[in-house]
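Here comes an entry:

___
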Amino acid sequence: MNAGSIGIIAIVFVAIIILAIFFTLVPVTLWISAMAAGVRVSIFTLIGMRLRRVIPNRIVIPLIKAHKAGLDVGISQLESHYLAGGNVDRVVNALIAAHRANIELTFERAAAIDLAGRDVLEAVQMSVNPKVIETPFIAGVAMNGIEVKAKARITVRANIDRLVGGAGEDTVIARVGEGIISTIGSSVDHAKVLEHPDMISQTVLSKGLDSGTAFEILSIDIADVDVGENIGANLQTEQAEADKKIAQAKAEERRAMAVANEQEMKARVEEMRAKVVSAEAEVPMAMADALRSGNIGVMDYMNYKNVQSDTSMRDSISKYGTENPDTENQ
């Protein structure tokens, strides 16, 4: 093999390498598809996407769809949204759906909604086809103490202007539940709520519950109304039971005080008896001392004893007469 053949082989090998690098950096089929669709994308732009680590397929195909739909969207806008972590295809689909439905939606607004974490395509679809949110059974108590449970269906439409920073479905359900409880609680009789359940939806709608949310409430329909427990009677029963226990506790307290007072009186009686016994024990000593000192004589002492005996006899006779009234009558 001569030098000329080796040179030709080397040139062919280098050409193959260059072509491989070229087709690696430049998606030729994608470039051809864009040119066939009437979208002008230069090869250097596709190479720049590769160098910026942007997948060209994720940019060019949405750009073709936007161009075919008649939208004025630039490739730099799509690429910047991709680099920001957004879903370019979903944003373009949302723009196309909004354009078909005559809904005013700019690319900047759609990109902001997508970057905020909301599904912008679903929001546009919800603007065209409203969504129905069903609440669980929400219980309220009327003024007569009867519990009323109501289930509502909320028809909402996405408010694109408030999708960024607006509250979600949970807030709408919570506000509607608060309105249902307030309406039931302000009713004098639960029968009125059962007879006219539409007054719940009218009252709730008049409060403007969709303010600050990402939705616009179109209607609130009461799907089901049911009667629960007699909360008022249960509360009265529990209150009566509590009053009973309080009264029993107070009565027990008074009984304990009475028992303690009785024991105290008994102790005082025993104390008085001890004093009496002590005083009686001093009488013989005083008599003996009086005899020794000559303050009384023997005859005086005998007369004192006779008086005591006479008094004791009279007491015995009086007690006997009281105990046997029939004998005295005979």
Q: What stands out?
A: The radius of gyration is 53 Å.
